[in-house]
Amino acid sequence: MLLVRDEESVKIGIPLFLLPSGSKEGDILDITIDRDVQETEAAKERVSSLLEKLKSKNRRTR
Q1: Which end of the chain lies in a sparser environment, N or C, as judged by fewer CB atoms within 10 Å?
Q2: Is the torsion defined by CA of 61, 47, 18, 26 positive or negative?
Q3: 5-16 pLDDT per residue, tens
Q4: 0.85 cut: is pTM over it?
Q5: Residues 6+ apart with CB under 8 A from 20
Q6: How many degrees, rounded to 5, is the angle at CA 31 between CA 14 and CA 40?
């Protein structure tokens, strides 16, 4: 469980395997979260493609 510095009432659960090796209780970690626009668009395209396949399959079974 990580506590957000300066606001230690905010807790974030992160699996141990995602933490830097050697991290231990009491360590202060610098964590950055960035938006991945390219990956978001790729995921949207995959979902859209799958949805079209399902719709097409549904039309053929009617």
Answers
A1: C
A2: negative
A3: 777 778 888 999
A4: no
A5: 29
A6: 80
Q: Which of 8, 43, 42 is nearest to 28 (CA)?
A: 8
Amino acid present at 5: R
In a domain, 20, yes or no: no
Taking the C-alpha atoms of residue 32 and residue 6, their distance in angstroms, rounded to an integer, is 16
Enclosing H/E stretch for 60: helix 37-60
Range of the domain at 41: 36-62
**Considering its fold, how many domains does the chain have in total?**
1
3-state secondary structure 5-59: CCCCCCEECCCHHHCCCCCCCCCCCCCCCCCCHHHHHHHHHHHHHHHHHHHHHHH
